[in-house]
Amino acid sequence: MKFEDVLAEVGSFGRFQLMTIFLMVIPRLTLALHFLLNNFIAVIPSHHCNISSLDDGGIFRNLSQAERLVVGLPVQKDGTPNSCQMFAEPQYHLLRNSSSMAELPTVPCQNGWVYDNTTFNGIWFAIKEELTKPPPLSSSWVLCLELQYLAILVTGIEWVDIKHRTAVGILISMDWTVSTVLLVLLAYFVNDWRYLTATATAPLLLAIVTWWWVPESARWLISNRKVNSAHFYLSKCAKINGREQVMADLKPEVLSKAVPIDNQSKKYSYLDLVKTPEMRRLTLLTGVLWFGVSCVYYGISLNVAGFGVNIYLTQFIFGMIEIPAKTFIFFTLQKLSRRLNQAGTLGLTGLCLFCNMFVPRDMTLYRTTVGTLGKMSAEGAFTIVVLYTSELYPTVMRQSGLGYSSFVALIGVSLSPLIMVLEDVWLYLPSTVFTFLAFAAALSACLLSETQNVNLPETIEDVEQTRGRLV
């Protein structure tokens, strides 16, 4: 009797599985609140020098605000006022001829800055007009959230049969979408970044409580020779699903044969990811895949201020378009292979990033449309990669494989803001890098094995003998 047979007997998708998924909702909702929080607490609004020191009590005082900016501030290449320099003295002749700005003497801001607080209600500033920068989220904090997410996903997938794996994987990911939209509402109504951070963090207290009620994966427990604990959770599953009589004849010793084990005395570690040829190949390809997916996804997600539209509206659009994106992915995963879906969404993401480089920045509608399409495909790629990778690694190494993939992904997340800074070198360099990463990740996906309608591998031997070839 295989584990799939045991699961079918106790109920592979009943009230127990739905209850488990429901218990995961609150922990999942906290993820996007923290991963995308910096979009609102670390954004720097447009600003320019405070030119009140140029007031000579004469002509300057009688000028309109727009005219004061003309005579007091040099203009950047994109036509916006310089944020760090001001004229040493009012240049009144620019009111007649603004093109004669070359070689005019400038000095650094002499009296602080003036910020555009129409979007943020001035919540990011201290009274003395000094920009208050909140501390970034620590890497250990983000890592804990990521590991929580992976534990939730693996638990959800390992409690259902092949037929429902796709549905459960996408259903669990919908919590992220809801959280993304919820973040917009919180940021709009909670004005101070300190209170916003506290509000986003508060649900973690409830998540800690609900996490204790989430059952362990019986499949994982058996693979780690904890058959008594596995028997306990399977009995609980059978009882809640109304199949309690099934467990009467199913003894713990029978379960020990439901999941094959490479070596009864072996303890697995991260080194097992690279000890055998096919595991090394799998580790390398999933590493490239996760790095590309995460770096590109967060490169788009953290650039909500770069589309020329209100940041709240952009974030809301980015959240809402995930619903049709994931719905579309749900249906395509039923018809097409995992590999084709993964490579296709990444290829489309790269294409959108490439095309957006040629859309003028003043064409905000077109830039937002192409950017939104890119965000949809990037979200689809992220939704698939978690499900796909969990199906590629064997049960004995699934947590380790996803933990490694998550670590590589976090490197991509950390580098994505640094890549965006490269626009100081060349305006289109960040988009070029992200495009290359998207296509590289798509190529790595093409080299992975197919997992659609295939039983989850249990041992490393399963990967070496039957999962190492393209199917």
Topology record:
Elements: H1 3-10, H2 15-23, H3 25-35, H4 38-41, E1 47-49, H5 59-62, H6 65-72, E2 85-87, E3 106-108, E4 113-115, H7 139-158, H8 162-189, H9 193-201, H10 203-211, H11 218-223, H12 227-240, H13 252-255, H14 277-301, H15 311-320, H16 322-335, H17 338-356, H18 364-392, H19 398-421, H20 429-446, H21 460-467
Antiparallel strand pairs: 1-4, 2-3
Tally of extended strands?
4
Tally of alpha and pi helices: 21
SSE-based structural type: mainly alpha
Give unreliable regions as ranges: 122-126, 128-138
Mean pLDDT: 83
What is the N-to-C order of secondary-structure elements (H for helix, E for strand)? HHHHEHHEEEHHHHHHHHHHHHHHH
Beginning-to-end CA distance, first to last residue: 26 Å
Share of residues in helices:
55-70%
Strand order, largest beta sheet: 1-4
- Report Rg: 27 Å
Strand content: under 5%
Shape: elongated
Describe the sheet with the most strands.
2 strands, antiparallel
